[in-house]
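Quick check before the chapter quiz. The format below is the same one you will see on the exam, so make sure you can read both the input and the output lines.
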Amino acid sequence: MNRIINIVILLFTVVMAQAATFSVNAPHQVVAGDKFHVTFVLNNGKGSSFTAPEVSGAQLIYGPSVSQMHSESWVNGKRSSESTEEYTMVYKANTTGKCHIGAASIVVDGKRMTSRPCTIDVVASGNHSSQSQQQQPRTPGAPTPYSDPMTQSAGQSVKGNDLFVRIELSKPRVYEQQAVVCTIKLYTKYQISQFIPTIQPSFDGFLIEELPVETALNKVETLNGERYMTAVLKQCILYPQQSGKLTITSGNYDVTVVQFDTFRSIFGPISQPVEKELKLSNNKATVNILPLPEPKPATFTGAVGKFNVTTDLKPATGLKTYSAATYRYIISGTGNIKYIKAPEINFPEQFDVYDPKTDAQVNEGSGDMSGRVVMDYTFIPQYAGEFDIPASEFSYFDPEAGQYVTVNVPGRHLTVAKGEGQPSNHYRMKNMDIRPIKTGDLGLKKSHSFIVDHWAYWLWFLLPLVALAALLLYYRKQLKERADVRRMRSKRASKVAQRRLKAARGFASRGDQGGFYAEMLNALWGYMSDKLSIPVSELSKDNINAELEQYGIDEKLRQESIALIDKCEFAQYAPELASGDMNAVLDEAAGVIDRLESVKRKKTTNVES
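Here is the expected output.
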């Protein structure tokens, strides 16, 4: 488990993009005789060799207590991660006056970083019994004191109100698309050494804009009369996309808290830290989402908030045909400004208009987004003359007033002069989408007949049946031919011979006379065996001559065939006496095979006895 945790920590460290920072969190004022915490926080870094500060005016009770917190999340397709290490020192203010906390230091990536010194005011207490009360043992059932090593003994149970994650919402009820700020915060009375999310918070039904936070136990808050150390785990602006009750979950976390074994020694009470692993389960919070009122204006595109609209034209003057210009539509204000859809602008038909490009420039404040979104419409005039971009309206819903507001956007008059160039391809293709209306005789008829009454309708059913029957006949013919082994050998005799002649040509090109004539004999004997269906064991010149005669080959071609075999055999066994060009022998063999292939077999009647 420790190895897995270390790997997770390493992965979180690799993906962090912010630079490491080292700071100190300390109270501005404490009461003499009370214990107080000073926490040194390392953000986005892996630290080592922590050096505690020099302190005057206070006594060190315990420390440093080391805690680590890691978080990683995916929001709107973007990954963000954060790592925090905290080194907490517990001091006791003995006398009134000033308590000076010097600079602490730590090594990060081989470099030593230091915190800033700070000063704490120690004031007199109106109730001097507070110190003695802290030294007394904790009463069973009483609330756990906030971060006190002397009373948080090892083995005692950690109650639900000692350590929990809480969801805080800026508004319990909003309209669709109206911003609500969600803060997920950790409350603890114990020091924490490990904090790892196992299931991330869920925001089903919302668009999310995450706000930057420092995940560190750097604040002390009072809730329901009890004091806690707190850390903001996640803070984001939520924009509900549907009406009804939407539920937000806080996520699950594995937490390791630090308790203490306290025993007395000659030097006074000594506390030894003991870690305890806990699991924090999901907490839930519900937001009531009101639907936007009906009827909605025709020009309403989902903008919720408060907005203004201005327009601009670049260039403002001197427009020419075939030269690009930009009509800029600017929406500014506060609300769901990043999610406003670009309105449709009615440009003149003589303009070639491209899809708008949107650039949102917003500030994510603590309550909503403010800024502006710029929508640039690029257009190219195709004709010279006087044109108008008509006036339009932009409607948005104001959730504070609970009503729709319509902003009038003035139109613009454009004067386009003749320029150089020709109509763009984009414009020509756009105007080819709709052809001119057809005129003349359209071939309309007053009477109609059913399609089933035509012979062509039934022909479409008969054609597949005929095609299937022809396919079956062809398939049966192929099966019958393949079953006739002699015929199949005869049909492929020429192909096999041609492959062997090609191999023989390779021997000829290399001047290998022995290999050439051996391959020639294989080609000729093999061809005769396949063509005439003579078994290899019965191959002889006499049998070949007899079969060629029965096949229907004339005497001249039979003699040429036998003579070619004799020539190749003589050249193979007496190469020193062989004469003639090997390529000429190849041509002669090819010619003899072609002539044999052109002769059709005589029909003969076989009589079986």
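If your answer matched, good. Residues 508 and 583 are 7 Å apart (CA to CA).
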